[in-house]
Specification:
Blueprint: E1 2-7, E2 11-12, E3 18-26, E4 33-39, E5 46-52, E6 58-60, E7 68-73, E8 78-83, E9 92-99, E10 117-118, E11 122-126
Parallel strand pairs: 2-11
Antiparallel strand pairs: 1-3, 3-8, 4-5, 4-9, 5-6, 7-8, 9-10, 9-11
């Protein structure tokens, strides 16, 4: 079992920044990748970014366009998502998730089906 707890969500104005954190605990040795997803009201869960532990490679959703940065502190089992230049359309609940398949890479890591454990989410609201 793996437990994930997100934090850092808040209400910000357009153009603002936030740093989301995801603390991972439990049986973490098998984790091969960590991802961030988001879900807005009435919409499906959307892949934001993921990172592979084996080589540190990252992938981002097309809508990110250089505004977000994923990182990980492996020593403390914490993942981060830096959100910059936020737009109202970024308003959503943001979730982190972990997966164990070592062969997954690239755009597969933006698919929720590649992940096994999920946190409860943290709310990001961008509004003037």
């Amino acid at each position: 079992q793996v437990q994930l707890v997100e934090s850092g969500g808040d209400s910000v104005q357009p153009g603002g920044s936030l740093r989301l954190s995801c603390i991972v605990s439990g049986f973490t040795l098998d984790i091969k990748h960590i991802g961030w997803f988001r879900q807005a009201p009435g919409k499906g869960r959307e892949g934001v970014s993921s990172i592979r532990r084996s080589d540190g490679s990252t992938v981002y959703g097309e809508f990110v366009k250089g505004r977000f940065t994923i990182s990980e502190d492996t020593a403390n089992n914490t993942a981060f998502l830096q959100l910059d230049s936020l737009k109202p359309e970024d308003t959503a609940t943001y979730f982190c998730a972990t997966g164990t398949n070592p062969y997954y890479q690239g755009d597969i890591l933006l698919d929720p089906r590649a992940f096994d454990y999920w946190g409860q989410g943290t709310q990001v609201t961008v509004s003037s």
